[in-house]
């Protein structure tokens, strides 16, 4: 690497898609529709060539010159290498094909990323074979954090990858749960993979980079700007089979992830919460939409996103009631037997509305089962009952 | 009224449906399918005639003789009159036609009530023109009670009748809410209307009887037997446009009301709650069913059950963000303006990826709106922002 950053038009290596995508990802934001249109039409390399030649006259592309002046793919690669990050593009063995679904984004929305920067030992393509996004509010409550942590642990134990945004609150708790469950987790950042954001999650993001993957579509050094978070969310949605929103206010970035998941035909899931909690207002609102699935725990999640036969949720255990095994006559007789003062069969028959002959037979059976007991003055409920 | 209760076959007045239904409702439970079949085939009066003549040979009907021996419609009417209760039957002006939907019940389930005992100044038919059932767990939490109370008040304020079962917990809180909102509420009991059950709700049931209605299909004096509660729930479902389950365990009578509401083509609504609360396990489970509506407050309820145009829920107020009114260029420029140390337009242009000419124009607009301020060394965020 030279001491001076290289300038565009000076020494950019155009021997492949990779360098072109690297350069383009530095020049413009993913939501830059003018550039996206040029890339979709010309391909990355030809787009770079025409930008250099000044033959792309579209007004929007003129704005890129402010960044052209300082772009340097070599410097980006060196900055990535300094933190053991790699840059992958479509066609690479590790490229997750499903992000290609983003190519069909509506005009004005960001499409598929030009490439992805990855830090960590995980194989992105492999990890995303079984991946679920767990996202939610930064200002989460203890309730949401408990649920997110349990989901993270449970998904990890079932060998599902937890994908989230590395933020405070729900995101961080989901990541930590996955780590606690000895599972793989992927943090998708809205800044370069060399930047730990938020600062308070430096240790967490470091740990994720040591065990799973920290990824970003922005080159090293890019700052976490506000508009990048929403754009980033589409990658979280695209990488996963479904998105679980644990807690969210009515206006929440997590809801944008859910919306992108829906438009990508991924499952949208929400955890119900108290209607008295503003942090559950967004999730409860989601649950009012017909295609949003209510999930109460990891079992519900994997039942939905998992392969049939391998990931079914266990049946909820109902508290058992010994009366359930009684026939209707016995149940009615049992209801008619007094608690303390014993009653004779005739009195019980009147109360139950059942003929005395049937009542006597039922009382015998109920006594055998331990529900009632015969005392001098008649029948009464057994003490244990 | 004579001193001695009259005996069947002695002096029963058969001059109409009313006395026949009164007698039959004393003889058997609503779920007695043998009697229901006879009534459906023969009509109430003829059924009574044949019972007296002993020409109804069905085995199940033999069992009724235990109660025939003590039945007395006159005594029932007198007991009702003693607590100012009236007995209404289909065809009466106050009879709510919608309970007729219960006639189509599946075999083995209780059908339409033979008649209804009413206590209170309300007109049952009128009150049920706009009625919602609010039901739930007896062992409710503070959360559920808060929500049930708010629903009761809110429905009352919107002139909806709150129908419930008078039980401890959610039922009672919903009734109390309706009373607090100066609305009408109907308690549907699983015992005679002369019995206050549960005992701890004596004052509440008395107050409901003074202002709304306490109703039952069982004659005065009938005790609240266990099997009567589930049978009673079908009347709560049938009288109302929809049933809201506020809190419920996985095994809960409130869920039976919801199921009956569904089979009667009424709306089934559930209030979401913490997945960590067993008292919300039943409601959250309901929300996993596609035809169950998630309701977070009275607005959602009346939006669903109300007439279009009169009862629409107000739009949820989103916290407003002044940035929302900015165009995309201004937003990106604003994101690129540093917080403390001022930056020049050229530097901001590079960070924002926007040509300097556009940046200057955007900065001017942002300053006018109070987002940024010009200082000696350049531009920075305004202090208020």
Account of the 3D structure:
Two copies of one chain form a homodimer. With 385 residues, chain A is of the alpha/beta class. The longest helix of chain A has 16 residues, at 142-157. Chain A folds into three domains: 17-74, no CATH class; 83-305, Rossmann fold (3-Layer(aba) Sandwich), CATH 3.40.50; 322-381, Winged helix-like DNA-binding domain superfamily/Winged helix DNA-binding domain (Arc Repressor Mutant, subunit A). The radius of gyration of chain A is 31 Å and the shape is elongated. In chain A, the strands form two sheets. A nine-stranded mixed β-sheet of chain A has the order 1-2-6-5-4-3-7-8-9, sandwiched between helices. A two-stranded antiparallel ribbon of chain A has the order 10-11. The first copy, chain A, contains 17 helices and eleven strands.
Which labels suit this protein?
homodimer, 385 residues, alpha/beta, Rossmann fold, 3 domains, nine-stranded mixed β-sheet, two-stranded antiparallel sheet, disordered N terminus
């Amino acid at each position: 690497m030279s001491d001076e950053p290289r300038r565009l038009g000076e020494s950019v290596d155009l021997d492949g898609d990779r360098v072109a995508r690297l350069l383009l990802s530095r020049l413009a934001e993913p939501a830059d529709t003018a550039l996206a249109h040029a890339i979709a039409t010309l391909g990355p390399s030809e787009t770079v060539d025409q930008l250099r030649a000044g033959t792309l006259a579209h007004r929007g592309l003129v704005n890129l010159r402010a960044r052209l002046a300082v772009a340097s793919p070599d410097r980006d690669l060196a900055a990535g290498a300094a933190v053991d990050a790699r840059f992958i593009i479509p066609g690479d063995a590790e490229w997750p094909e499903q992000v290609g679904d983003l190519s069909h984004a509506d005009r004005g929305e960001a499409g598929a990323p030009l490439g992805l920067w990855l830090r960590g030992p995980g194989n992105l393509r492999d990890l995303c074979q079984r991946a679920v996004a767990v996202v939610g509010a930064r200002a989460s409550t203890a309730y949401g954090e408990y649920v997110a942590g349990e989901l993270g642990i449970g998904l990890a134990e079932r060998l599902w990858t937890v994908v989230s945004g590395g933020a405070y609150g729900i995101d961080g708790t989901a990541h930590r749960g996955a780590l606690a469950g000895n599972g793989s987790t992927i943090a998708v950042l809205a800044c370069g993979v060399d930047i730990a954001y938020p600062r308070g999650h430096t240790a967490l993001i470091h740990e994720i980079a040591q065990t799973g993957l920290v990824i970003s579509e922005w080159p090293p050094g890019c700052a976490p700007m506000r508009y990048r978070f929403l754009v980033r969310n589409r990658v979280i949605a695209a990488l996963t089979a479904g998105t679980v929103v644990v807690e969210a206010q009515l206006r929440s970035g997590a809801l944008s992830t859910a919306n992108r998941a829906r438009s990508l035909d991924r499952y949208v899931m929400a955890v119900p919460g108290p209607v008295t909690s503003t942090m559950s207002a967004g999730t409860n609102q989601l649950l009012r939409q017909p295609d949003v699935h209510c999930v109460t725990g990891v079992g519900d999640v994997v039942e939905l996103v998992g392969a049939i036969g391998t990931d079914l949720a266990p049946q909820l255990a109902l508290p058992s009631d010994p009366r359930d095994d009684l026939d209707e006559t016995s149940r009615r007789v049992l209801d008619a037997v007094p608690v303390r003062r014993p009653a004779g069969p005739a009195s019980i028959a009147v109360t139950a509305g059942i003929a005395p002959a049937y009542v006597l037979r039922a009382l015998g059976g109920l006594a055998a089962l331990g529900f009632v007991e015969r005392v001098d003055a008649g029948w009464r409920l057994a003490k244990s009952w």
